[in-house]
Design brief:
With about 325 residues, the protein is an alpha/beta fold. Helix content is about 45%, strand content about 20%. It is globular.
Length: about 325
C-alpha cells in the first residue's frame, strides 16, 4: 500500500490539496495518506516552520503531495520549500505546460542557483550567492535529455553572455546533449520568455538553472489559463514531491475560490511517477471533460468554487469506472 505524505501548508494549499486527495482516493482507494504539518502558520504558532521529524516523514513516504507555503520577509524565517528540496535532494523540478498550442516541459535545476540559501545580510549590504556546480548542471542536463530523447528536442535557457556562472551551466548542458545524441539549441533567457509566448509550438523540453526556470514557468502559465492550471514534480534519486506551481495566495484562502486543477494535476503526476500512468491519464481526461462541460473556476472565467470543480472532476471519473 503506497504511503503518501500530505503537506497542505498555508493559504490556498489547505483548500486545494484536500480536493486533490479526494480525486486520488477516487481512482486509488488503496493509497494511505498521512498528514505532515509545515509552513508559516506552524512557525507563528510554534516558532518552527518545519523540523527534522517532518523531513524524516517525507523521506519515508513513497511520495509527497504538497500544497503551498507562505514565506514572509522575515530575516529569522527560513524557506520551508528550499529546505525540503535540499534535504531530500529533489534536484529536478519538472513543470509540464500543456494546452492550446503548448505541449512542452520546463526542467528546472532545483537545489542550486540563487536559491541555494547561501546569504549574508548586514545593515548596509545583503548578498545572495548564485551557486552553479558541474555536478548539479550535469545531473539536471541528463534528466532533461532523458525527457527530450522521448520527445523531440531540447532548448537550453541561460544568460551566459552576462552571468559568468552560466557559462559553466551552458557548457555542461551542451556537452551532455551532444553525448546523449539529443537535438538542442540555446537561447538567452529573456528572449526565451518572449519567444515562448509567441511561438509555444516550437518548444518541447526546456532546461534552465533554478531561478530562471521558476520565472519561465510562471510566464508559460499564460499559455494555459494561469497558474491555477500548472502542476509540478520535484524528483530526486530517492524521494519525490508533487505540488502546484502557484503560491499560497493567502488573501484567497478559505473562500472556496481557488482553482484546484494544478494540485489535482500534480496528483496525476504523482501516480505516473509511482508507475500508475493509466490512472494519471484518467485524471487528466476527467479534468478535460469537466472543463468541456462548462464547469470552471473564476480564474478561468467561470463561477465554480474549489469544491465544485473537484466534484465535477470526480463525477467525470466515476462515469468512467466500469
Amino acid at each position: 500500500m503506497p504511503k503518501i505524505a500530505v503537506a497542505e501548508g498555508d493559504g490556498i494549499g489547505k483548500d486545494v490539496v484536500p480536493v486533490a486527495t479526494r480525486v486520488l482516493a477516487t481512482v486509488r482507494p488503496d493509497l494511505e495518506f498521512f498528514p505532515v504539518e509545515v509552513g508559516y502558520g506552524r512557525w507563528e504558532r510554534t516558532g518552527e516552520a518545519i523540523t527534522s521529524a517532518e523531513i524524516g516523514a517525507m523521506k519515508e513516504a513513497d511520495a509527497v503531495l504538497f500544497g503551498a507555503v507562505t514565506t514572509p520577509p522575515d530575516l529569522d524565517y527560513r524557506s520551508v520549500v528550499v529546505r525540503i528540496r535540499k534535504e531530500l535532494d529533489l534536484y529536478a523540478n519538472v513543470r509540464p505546460v500543456r494546452g492550446g498550442d503548448a505541449d512542452l516541459v520546463i526542467v528546472r535545476e532545483n537545489t542550486e542557483g540563487l536559491y541555494s540559501g547561501i546569504e549574508e545580510i548586514g545593515p548596509d549590504r545583503a548578498t545572495t550567492l548564485r551557486l552553479i556546480t558541474r555536478r548539479g548542471s550535469e545531473r539536471i542536463a541528463r534528466f532533461a535529455c532523458s525527457l527530450a530523447g522521448d520527445r523531440r528536442h531540447l532548448t537550453i535557457g541561460h544568460k551566459a553572455n552576462v552571468l559568468k556562472s552560466d557559462t559553466l551551466f551552458r557548457e555542461v548542458c551542451i556537452g551532455v546533449a551532444k553525448e546523449s545524441g539529443v537535438s538542442f539549441r540555446e537561447k538567452f533567457i529573456d528572449a526565451l520568455c518572449l519567444d515562448l509566448l509567441q511561438h509555444p509550438q516550437d518548444y518541447d523540453v526546456i532546461v534552465t538553472e533554478n531561478m530562471f526556470g521558476d520565472i519561465l514557468s510562471d510566464v508559460a502559465a499564460y499559455l494555459v489559463g494561469g497558474l491555477g492550471m500548472l502542476p509540478s514534480a520535484n524528483i530526486g534519486d530517492r524521494s519525490s514531491l508533487f505540488e502546484p506551481v502557484h503560491g499560497s495566495a493567502p488573501k484567497h484562502a478559505g473562500k472556496n475560490t481557488a482553482n484546484p486543477i494544478a494540485a489535482i494535476r500534480s496528483g496525476a503526476m504523482l501516480l505516473d511517477h509511482l508507475g500508475d500512468g493509466e490512472n494519471g491519464a484518467r485524471i487528466e481526461e476527467a479534468i478535460g471533460k469537466a472543463l468541456a462541460s462548462g464547469v470552471k473556476t473564476r480564474d478561468l472565467g467561470g463561477t465554480a468554487g474549489t469544491k465544485e470543480m473537484g466534484d465535477a472532476i470526480i463525477a467525470a471519473l466515476l462515469l468512467d469506472i466500469p
